[in-house]
Amino acid sequence: MSIPVAVQLYTLRDLIARDFLGTCRSVAKMGYKGVELVDTRTILSAANLKKEMAAMGLAMAGVHVGIEQLEANLDAVAAYYGEAGVSHLVCPYMPDTRRKTADDWKKQANTLATIGSKLGTKGFTFCYHNHDFEFQKFGSTNGLDIMFSIADARSLGFELDVYWVKFAGENPVTLMHKLSGRLPLLHCKDMAAGPERKFAPVGSGVLDWKGIFQAAPKVGVKWYIVEQDNCYDLPPLEAVRSSLENLKKMGIA
Questions:
Q1: Are 101 and 52 in contact (CB under 8 A)?
Q2: Which end of the chain has fewer CB atoms within 10 angstroms, the N or the C?
Q3: Strands 5-8 and 34-38, how do they pair?
């Protein structure tokens, strides 16, 4: 069974701020199978979210909810997304004030494990999304290794962003195998050639997509999620369309 492709709506953040449902309809018409949400609790009710996504034929691959909301309002977050039918909740970022030392990372890992354990009892899979700072060295370890070692697979999975892994000087395929069984979501984002290492549509840059897509089913990836933090002069809808077209050419979408 092939792995479906979604788009992270953060890429289209300016558009969804003006017209959330219209932007999602555009994504559906392109041929994306799903979306990964940014927190939609202030946009529409859980029942309406579920209804509208079903009407468009879009699955909800997951949702990004900030660590502050997960700490302060976990029951409300779980109630809303449980009703909406979203099963993957993702912590998308760790503020720099929380990650200055190895001990900071140990504290955050325990916090994430506690959140993930609570969400697990409610039927959710909880994941952490990386950037490059998780690879900062503290002696022989780093933030990602600390999270991996402290939080077990039942309480914390990962949403690996392959661009940021490459940006940090690591090998995405090697890391995918290390996280095997804990990697349901894969952020697909390319890096343009050149010293600026700009974000680029999937398939137009320097990442080893053949190796990544060969590894993905072996390590348990359930969703490919296209994201492009900055589309520069290319309209965001055209950027995600380009990614999808390239994925089709690779036999993925």
A1: no
A2: N
A3: parallel
- Which domains, from first to last, does the chain contain? 5-249 (3.20.20.150)
> To 5 degrees, how large is the angle CA 69–CA 71–CA 75?
80
Q: Cα dist. 37→34, 146, 188, 239 in Å?
A: 10, 27, 15, 18
Tell me, letter by letter, the H, E, C secondary structure of 98-129.
HCCCHHHHHHHHHHHHHHHHHHHHCCCEEEEE
Q: What is the pLDDT of residues 181-230, one digit of tens each?
A: 999 999 999 999 999 999 999 999 999 999 999 999 999 999 999 999 99
String of b and e for 170-200 (b: at least 16 CB within 10 Å)? bebbebbebbeebbbbbbbbbbeeeeeebbb
**pTM confidence score:** 0.98
- The C-alpha angle with vertex 81 and arms to 80 and 86, in degrees rounded to 5, equals 165
Residue 125 pLDDT greater than 80, yes or no: yes
